[in-house]
Amino acid sequence: MSPLIEIENLSKIYDNGHVALDRVSLDIKEGELIALLGPNGAGKTTLISIICGLVRPSSGHVTVAGHDIIEDYLHTRKLIGLVPQELPIEPFESVIKSVSFSRGLFGKPADPDYIEKLLADLSLSDKKLSQIKSLSGGMKRRLLIAKALSHEPRILFLDEPTAGVDVNLRMEMWDLIHQLKESGVTVILTTHYIEEAEEMADRVAVINNGTIIVVERKADLMRKMGKKQMYLELQSPIATIPEQLRPYDLRIQDNGQVLLYNYETRKERTGITSLLKDLSTVGIGFKDLRTEQSSLEDIFIDLVEERIDVLERAERSMALDLSES
Questions:
Q1: Are the CB atoms for 148 and 89 separated by under 8 Å?
Q2: What is the pLDDT of residues 243-295, one digit of tens each?
């Protein structure tokens, strides 16, 4: 089955020379929830703006359901719902009129029953006649989703959907996004909240400085690149690491009461068995141990730092070549 969205060598360079996207390629399958994860300014919003037809690319191309987004703009735009970061809504309009108007913009015939159901699903029924200005921040977010879904799109883009909202509302939004995915909508979520991607995504695309660093299933990414930490609570505190234990790169914590050991889950051997044996050999006893696995945030930081290191080495090499020529 062909991907629902195909992005190939997509670049965007603005008039001031800023490279917002640099040869981005990505396929998105129907029915999946993919998180575009990256810091502010990484290129996430530019990418979805191009797919939605709001920004024209400098090069490369994108197809949605087999249709080119530029040549078949009207067709592809009808397949897409977009929930932007900002709240571009008319404050004096009623909720139900605003959602119904959005449906009409896409050439869809009036369907009061569908609009009523949509508002009910988004817990907005009791506010349908209220002016938008009277809604809470959370309800305005829900209204934006209702407007984006008013024309029954197959794809929903959520650009930083929980930016600036409190923790409780963020959890409610997560539940809502899960429901949308279960209903068959393909969801593309842009976020810089690591926990948001970790909670909801099937796949994670890490983007930084306009380039996609990696695209992986979330579970595979955490398994392949994750690290674990083992904390050993000692029977008696120690001041220094014995010479025999130096190869394990242990760290002393809590005034000598705890030893920290880092190991990688992707390696064939973790070294734990030999470590425990060597601890016994040097006479260090422990009374408890626990392990923790690295989060998606740890992996993201490692990937970005690795990318920066690669770029810095390339720049140094280029500068050296120029100085020698």
A1: no
A2: 999 989 898 999 999 998 887 655 556 788 888 889 989 999 888 887 766 55
Q: Count of CB atoms within 10 A of residue 161's CB?
A: 25
| Domain total in the chain | 2
Quote the tokens at residue 88.
């571009």
- Check whether residue 38 and residue 168 sit in a common domain: yes
Question: Residue 64 is part of which domain span?
Answer: 5-222
DSSP designation for 134 = G
Residue 289: CATH number of its domain: 3.30.70
Interatomic CA distance for residues 59 and 23, integer angstroms: 8
Q: Which residues of 283-319 are buried (b: 16+ CB within 10 A; e: fewer)?
A: ebebeeeeeeebebebbbeebbeebeeeeeeeeeeee
267 and 201 in a common domain: no
State both tokens at 34: 């993919």
- State how far the Cα of 67 lies from the Cα of 257, in Å rounded to an integer: 63
Domain endpoint, select from 191, 222, 253: 222
Please count the residues of the chain: 325
The CATH number linked to 33 is 3.40.50.300
**What pLDDT, in 10s, does the model give residues 39-75?**
778 898 899 999 999 999 999 999 999 999 999 999 9
**Same-domain pairing of 244 and 202:** no
Question: Which of 80-84, 145-149, 208-212 has the lowest average pLDDT?
Answer: 208-212
Shared domain for 43 and 139, answered yes or no, is: yes
Query: Is the separation of the CB atoms in 59 and 133 below 8 Å?
Result: no
